[in-house]
Design goal:
Rossmann fold, two-stranded antiparallel sheet, 10 helices, globular
Length: 232
């Protein structure tokens, strides 16, 4: 299994193929649309990757600015979404004016802090959330989306590294949340094993083959809150 940073820098096309199979029932899109409401919004996304969330949001938004730290991921995203304003940027240095967005989100990006900065991930997360608050207008919405387990039917089944993230998001950062099933769907068991194994490794390959899965269960956490009245 490649290191995630290696995937983002050197295997963006394969990553895009992987996520194209995710959430085959469209549960995440419907949940995001509920949060967005009927208004046409100005949206900023960080950790956009190859645009899996961006593709959902762009048709419902007035404007979209999407950023990722890995330029190869942005290069792939641009191919299918030329109308979006793309850029390479870190989570805490988004090139966006203060109070210029109605909706700011990250997907499957902030959670990496737990592995990449085990002793300082809480500081990282607080700093990144402050950056989202900086760019959101008063009354606007901040959204985080993170995995609660792939190959599991219930959140954090069997234990998961992002359980502390979940607790911190709710208890310290004041986010509300809901759990969504975002199952992957494939034509064959072999396709499921090969495509998912590239990113998740041998353990998931074994589970896919043992269970004969063409639909692979996944749980995802959707976290949201409005911008605080005062932004530090």
């Amino acid at each position: 299994m490649p290191d995630y940073r290696e995937v983002y820098e050197h295997h963006a096309d394969r990553y895009d193929t992987l996520v194209s199979h995710e959430d085959h029932e469209g549960n995440l899109g419907r949940a995001l649309f509920e949060l967005m409401g009927e208004r046409s919004l100005d949206v900023v996304e960080t950790g956009a990757g190859t645009g899996r969330l961006t593709r959902l949001i762009a048709p419902r938004a007035r404007t979209v600015k999407a950023f990722d730290a890995a330029a190869p991921m942005i290069d792939v995203a641009k191919q299918s979404l030329p109308s979006v304003e793309w850029g390479v940027a870190l989570h805490d240095a988004l090139p966006v004016p203060d109070a210029s967005a109605d909706f700011a989100l990250e997907g499957w990006a902030f959670g990496h802090a737990l592995a990449w900065n085990p002793t300082g991930w809480r500081d990282d997360l607080q700093r990144w959330v402050r950056e989202l608050e900086r760019i959101v207008r008063p009354g606007g919405t901040l959204v985080m989306i993170e995995t609660m387990g792939t190959g599991v039917a219930t959140p954090f089944e069997g234990g998961h590294s992002l359980e502390p993230f979940h607790a911190f998001a709710l208890e310290t950062l004041g986010f509300s949340h809901r759990v969504l099933r975002t199952d992957y769907a494939f034509a064959t068991v072999d396709e499921a094993a090969q495509t998912l194994g590239f990113f998740f490794g041998a353990r998931l390959i074994t589970r896919v083959r043992e269970n004969g899965w063409t639909v692979v269960p996944e749980c995802t956490g959707l976290y949201w809150r409005q911008r605080a009245d005062a932004v530090a």
